Amino acid sequence: MLYDITLKITYAYETAAESGRHQLCLMPADLPGEQRVIASSLTVDPSPTEQTWHTDFFGNSWADIGYDGAVKRTEFKVRSRIERFDPDELFDVSPDMDGIERQLDTLTSVQPLSPHHFRWTSERIHRHGPLAAWAAERTAGASSAYRIAETLSNALHEEWTFDSQATMVDTPIEEAFELKRGVCQDFAHLAISALRSLGIPAGYVSGYLRTIPPKGQARLEGADAMHAWIMAWCGTDMGWVELDPTNATRAGADHIVIARGRDYADVAPVRGALRTSGKQRTSQAVDVVEIAD
């Protein structure tokens, strides 16, 4: 699949913001065998005083920008052309949980995507007793690590409601669990916490999702989305498998990867600090348009 992707994020400040320092994780990743970046650019308006790039421990690309003066608004715009490959046909060769534990005990790698980095508490993910109990109950009949991960992902989709107004970016998993509603970030965090409580290493994937309008309706400009899904480690033979609990599906050709980490805190699209007072308004528009080969 070939896609043209456009993202525009705008911040408008009631009072001019000074001394802004931002880190941006917005660019699609170049992943051999998964997706290829043909062309990609980031435009920042107004132009920052300084801009550099760095790669983090997990291999994600970040733009670091800074403003010396005051700004009333900032706009970040990404344009990319991406080739996204269909995932390989999946065969479940994952072990049961005793096998997962044995493999983890003998695995010595601490490379960026080693499952050892994704087993325990991270900044936004910790064990929540009621969630762990729910996960154990829902996956009681699953015989392999992959079936556990798939069953859990599907159960979240069935029992939670997508609601863009229910949670905030910093909503803890305890609150999202009680609400039984939220956005893709909440679905992903709940799935990661639940899988780790069962002994399956799990991580967070940020990206873009192409959405398909209902039959007979025109595609709306800006109606696609930044999205989040999970990756679950299903043993040394299967490795990492990516699942989308918001949509009860395996991540596929419609999922374009930006970054991978332990949770949202590792891959937040925009983070930083500035000095201002009063309110600010934020808007976001995403277009993921398929291009004919």
UniProtKB/TrEMBL annotation:
Residues 176-247 form the Transglutaminase-like domain. Gene3D superfamilies: 3.10.620.30. Pfam families: Bact_transglu_N (PF08379), Transglut_core (PF01841). Signal peptide: none annotated. SMART domains: TGc. This is Transglutaminase family protein. It comes from Pelagovum pacificum.
